[in-house]
Design a protein that fits this description.
Largest sheet: none
Number of helices: 14
Structural class: mainly alpha
Helix content: over 70%
Shape: globular
Radius of gyration: 18 Å
Distance between the termini: 11 Å
Number of strands: 0
Order of helices and strands: HHHHHHHHHHHHHH
Length: about 290
């Protein structure tokens, strides 16, 4: 596997690491479905400008595959956004990080792609690092959210895992740019129809459009375009392993921006995740 594709996936986890707090704070003032509709509409517009013509020319095979992936992605974000209203960003990041276990199980069941022993060791290390880094440990951390919120985020993690596996299933059969544009358009249309049906309105406060713009362009259009491109050259399980860097970057972001201390827990958990990714790199190609 080329290092550049792994680095590309790692870079988008850096962006994702900044989003939990942004989503949590913004959806306290904006209806979650309005937030999703606005975010994905901005992302879809950005990619349709670049790839809309090629998406139309590609025909039905790309459209239906993009629609399936878009629905998986959209449902995942609905559950995550509503879950974040009822649980803490730290707990949501931890539960979402369980993808590292869910994806290989799903790949083995649906794609008949069981990971080799070396990759199983890497998954175990990264999962352990995720627990050390992100799992709420104190009573205060557990009491800062609800069980219902955690369950909603868990459902989100399952749909995100299905999206990762689906990209690996379809990636080599469709162009990355047009496919991503279709996926984001599907989410925007479904969420927009929901918003229109509910009678909710777009936010009028100017300060709310900065985080929505960031989420739409950087954390949606850009990251999913890169993910769809990079996953053409790797497996779903390998991508999920790299995505465990998300809570590591979230912790570093909190340290740099909010001045939070890099505790031994962060260092040990992050180091264990990095060790898992390093093990996955040893020997080249992964299954």
């Amino acid at each position: 596997m080329s290092l550049r594709y792994d680095l590309a996936l790692a870079f988008i986890t850096l962006i994702w690491g900044t989003t939990f707090v942004v989503v949590k704070v913004t959806t306290e003032r904006v209806d979650p479905m309005v937030f999703i509709a606005a975010r994905f509409a901005l992302g879809a517009i950005a990619l349709l400008v670049l790839f809309g013509g090629r998406a139309l020319a590609a025909g039905p095979p790309l459209w239906w595959r993009g629609t399936i992936l878009g629905l998986l992605l959209g449902v995942g974000f609905v559950f995550q956004t509503y879950g974040l209203r009822e649980t803490s960003p730290a707990r949501a990041a931890f539960i979402t990080g369980l993808n590292v276990v869910i994806v290989p199980l799903m790949s083995a069941a649906l794609l008949r792609m069981a990971p080799p022993r070396r990759l199983i060791i890497a998954i175990a290390l990264s999962a352990a690092g995720t627990v050390v880094l992100s799992a709420p440990l104190s009573p205060d951390e557990w009491s800062s959210g609800s069980t219902r919120g955690d369950l909603l985020v868990l459902v989100c993690a399952i749909f995100f895992a299905a999206h990762i596996v689906g990209i690996s299933r379809f990636a080599t059969r469709v162009e990355s740019g047009p496919s991503t544009a279709v996926q984001l358009t599907v989410v925007a249309v479904v969420a927009g129809a929901w918003v229109l049906g509910s009678g909710a309105s777009l936010p009028t406060e100017r300060d709310l459009w900065w985080p929505i713009g960031y989420m739409g362009v950087a954390a949606t259009a850009f990251v999913f375009l890169v993910q769809n491109w990079a996953q053409r050259h790797t497996t779903a399980t390998r991508a999920a392993l790299i995505f465990t860097l998300e809570p590591v970057f979230a912790a570093l972001y909190s340290a740099v921006v909010y001045g939070e201390e890099l505790t031994p827990r962060v260092l040990i958990g992050g180091g264990t995740i990095l060790a898992g990714i390093l093990v996955s790199e040893i020997g080249g190609e992964t299954g």
